[in-house]
Amino acid sequence: MKWYEQNYVSRRDWIIDHLQVLGLSGEEFLLVMAVDFMNEHRMVITMDSLAAKTGLSAEETDKVISLLCAKRYLEIRASNKEVRFVLDGLFETETAKQQRVMDQSLFDLFESEFGRPLNPREMEKISEWNSTYNKKMIIQALREASAYQHLNTSYIDRILQEWKKKGFIGSSGKETS
C-alpha cells in the first residue's frame, strides 16, 4: 500500500501543505479538492457534478481537468462500469517523493519500542515529525523516552520541542553542531 493510501494520511491536508510546490492555480486546487472529497465519499463524478460542486462553468471545468491531466496529477480511468477520477499523480510527483512523507521503518521502530501496534493518531504524529525533523533526532527522542519509561508520543513531542528550544535542533528540524 502506498503512503498516501494509508487510513491515517489526510490527503487534503498534504495537498494544502504542498500547494506552493505543486503549483496549482485556484481553479485547479478547487477541482482537486472536489475530486478528492467526492472520491472519499464514493460519489459518482461527472463533468456536470464537478461543475455543480465547484461553481465553475462546464467549459472551465473541462479546461481545468485538461490542465490537471497534462500535469499528470489527474488520471481519468474509464471502464465499462464507471469512470474514475484518480489523483494519485499528485502524490507520486518528484516533489512528493522528496518530502520524506512516510517512512515505514520509523513506524516499525516505534511499534517495536512501544510493544504494540500504533494507533492512527500516533502514526499521524510520527509522520508529522518525519517531515519536520531529522530521522536521527526522532530516534534519539524515542530512545530517551524509552530510558525514562515514558513511551508515548506526547512525551517524545515534548523532548523534540525542548531540543528545538535549546538549539539542539535548528529551525529546519535538523541537528545542529
Structure description:
With 177 residues, the protein is mainly α. It folds into two domains: 3-97, Arc Repressor Mutant, subunit A, CATH 1.10.10.10; 103-166, Arc Repressor Mutant, subunit A (Orthogonal Bundle), CATH 1.10.10. Helix content is 60%, strand content 5%. It contains eleven helices and two strands; from the N terminus they run αααααββαααααα. It has helices spanning 11-17, 19-22, 26-40, 47-54, 58-70, 88-91, 94-98, 104-114, 120-132, 135-147, 153-166, and strands spanning 75-78, 83-86. β1 and β2 (83-86) form a beta hairpin. α4 packs across α5, α8 runs parallel beside α10 (135-147) and α10 packs across α11. The longest helix is centred in the N-terminal third of the chain and has 15 residues, at 26-40.
Observed structural traits:
mainly alpha; 177 residues; Arc Repressor Mutant, subunit A; single chain; 2 strands; two-stranded antiparallel sheet
Q: Give the strand order, joined by hyphens, for the main sheet.
A: 1-2
- Secondary-structure arrangement, i.e. CATH architecture of the largest domain: Orthogonal Bundle
How many DSSP H or I helices? Answer: 11
Helix content: 55-70%
Shape: elongated
- What would you report as the Rg, rounded to the nearest angstrom? 20 Å
